[in-house]
Amino acid sequence: MASLDHKSLAAEILKEVGGQENIASATHCATRLRLKLHDESKANTAAVKQLPGVITVMKAGGQYQVVIGNDVPTVFAEIGKISKIGQDADATVTSSQGNLFNRFIDLVSSIFSPILWPLAGSGLLKAFLSMAATFGWVANTNQTFVILSAAADALFYFLPMFLAVTAARRFRTNQFTSMAIAGALVYPSIVKLGDASEPVAFAGIPVAMMHYASSVIPIIVAVWLQGYVERFLQKVLPSAFRNFLTPLLSIAVMVPLILLTVGPLTIFASQGISGGIAGLFGSVPWLAGALMGGLWQVFVLFGMHWGFIPIVTNELATSGHSLVMGPLVPAVLAQAAAMAAVAVRTRSAKRRQVAAPAAFSGFLAGVTEPGIYGVNLPLKKPFYFGIVGGAVGGAIAAIGGSAASTFVFMSVLALPAYASVGSFAMLLAGTGVAIAIAFVLTFVFGPREQPDNDAAPVAADAPSQGATPAAGTVKVLAPVSGAVVALSEVQDKVFASGAMGSGIGVVPEDDKVYAPVSGTVHAVMKTGHAYGIKTDEGVEVLVHIGIDTVQMDGEGFEAAVTRGQRVEAGQLLATADRARIAAAGYDNTTLMVVTNTKNLTAVVPVGDGHITHGVPALDVEL
């Protein structure tokens, strides 16, 4: 369907089902449009079936289902453009279950994923350098130390530049234009304006300047908006000027826009919060400590921690110590403790490889970014438990009047800076309690995770991980363990007819679903019930968990991958709660089909009876 006219198909479907006014609601799953019509008699089903790109039409579960296949998200999006229905056109973008904050966490985590290892390495180098300076092994003015510090700090300082690349991939923008926007935010003259005492204006409009080095949210917002600007310009600009005018105008619009909007919003929010919390230290210190200890990492995430810098600086200048910094040691070390608990508890070697060094750099240098973005945020619970531990520990530290006598990065090595003001014992007690709470809660209640490529014993003829298939063939492995069902016998007419391609069904005996092939995830339903993977050879495999389970709206499904991610055969794709599927009245048979069967020589099922995940289930001849 490479030449399918999605816009025309969307218009024709809309027309033949009786128009927009006859559609009560619309959504889509992995293969079909799911329409609820006010009056099905107004739909010309015969005409819909004849439309180029439509495989068939089904009427089931009170829905009018137009089966299209892999192009269904694009057709659904086109319907949304020409009508007021189908506004959820980006249904295959990612598996974002839960509330808005959880979806935001998923977004940020996915953007950070490609740079986790450099973050972890830089964080460890910072930890070693901090330790060397603290113990007097080398002076921080030593030229070797300065050079290594630059190497360790560069990624953190220029973080917006790196995030510009990964965000551009996520939002499908020109990554070099995104980098240019990020570069402007950390450009020396912009940094200088942020330090200046005089007012700053752009075209006569006042600009509230902030520091964008190490910031996260501004560049993500900028690249997201850049996508809309680019798509608009691509439509309206003449082709002769489009290639150079699109980046020119995108940069010229986005840089001032971010400086005029995101910066001021962040500053005003942080000033309001920091001012309020600073006031609480004088009247209700335990509450101020709990808020600082619990929310400090959240402030850092949004770049709002900059609002506390003037307060800390003023405290140090006027009284020689900072009460605001008192609860920050428990805040930081609680998150590091949660990372350590994940490193001990997880059965994923890949997660442990991030969590262990991240915890080390968090404890020794106060560098939590690698662990926050690579461990605690993606897993969610460790981040929440770190907040709880930091809040309790911060309250204890604040009750004891703990304060820093100099500006330091909060870490174990920075504890001497807190020894001369307030109760050092209370600070140590608060820090210990914070660490204990975060570690214990994460260890007991945190996600255990499955081992990487956790496959049961593989048959002798199954390819090893990473092995190259025999010339002209691809082996597709079983995604779940259980009883094999011939595709023609599954309780879904479209799949059973073979219209979606050849494959098998498996009645699963556990809740884990694994990748049947190595390749790129090109589709992840937001409900978590269906996944599309394309191999390097061009084989397109759809794994569909249950029948009509799209109706569960994501309840009972937890995705382990995101669209655009590279997966290996045997890697965990998702977890599906079979008990909840059964309780909801749906068939939990997992379907696996090769959706581009017509373009291949043959797709032959090779498994029957009982099959174990990781064992070959289909032989595909290219």
What Rg, in angstroms, do the CA atoms define?
28 Å
Biggest sheet layout: 8 strands, antiparallel
Q: Per DSSP, what share of the residues sits in E-state strands of 2 or more residues?
A: 15-25%
**Sequence stretches where pLDDT stays below 50 over 5 or more residues:** 87-98, 453-471
Task: Please give a structural write-up.
- The protein has 622 residues and is α+β, with helices and mostly antiparallel strands.
- It folds into 4 domains: 77 residues, Glucose permease domain IIB (Gyrase A, domain 2); 169 residues, no CATH class; 163 residues, no CATH class; 149 residues, Glucose Permease (Domain IIA), CATH 2.70.70.10.
- Helices cover 48% and strands 16% of the residues.
- It contains 21 helices and 20 strands.
- It has an 8-stranded antiparallel sheet.
- The longest helix is centred in the middle third of the chain and has 22 residues.
- The radius of gyration is 28 Å and the shape is globular.
- The protein starts with 5 loop residues before the first helix and ends with a strand.
- About 5% of the residues have low confidence.
Layout: helices, strands, pairs:
Layout: H1 6-16, E1 23-28, E2 32-37, H2 45-50, E3 56-60, E4 63-67, H3 72-82, H4 100-112, H5 116-134, H6 143-157, H7 159-171, H8 175-185, H9 188-195, E5 200-202, E6 205-207, H10 217-236, H11 239-260, H12 262-283, H13 285-302, H14 309-319, H15 328-345, H16 349-365, H17 369-379, H18 381-399, H19 424-445, E7 473-477, E8 482-486, H20 493-497, E9 502-508, E10 512-514, E11 519-524, E12 530-534, E13 540-547, E14 557-559, E15 566-567, E16 572-576, H21 578-583, E17 587-594, E18 602-605, E19 610-611, E20 616-621
Antiparallel strand pairs: 1-2, 2-4, 3-4, 5-6, 7-20, 8-9, 8-19, 9-17, 10-16, 11-12, 11-15, 12-13, 13-17, 14-16, 18-20
Helix pairs in contact: 1-3, 4-17, 5-6, 5-16, 5-17, 7-8, 7-10, 8-10, 8-11, 10-11, 12-13, 13-15, 13-18, 15-16, 15-17, 15-18, 15-19, 16-17, 17-18, 18-19
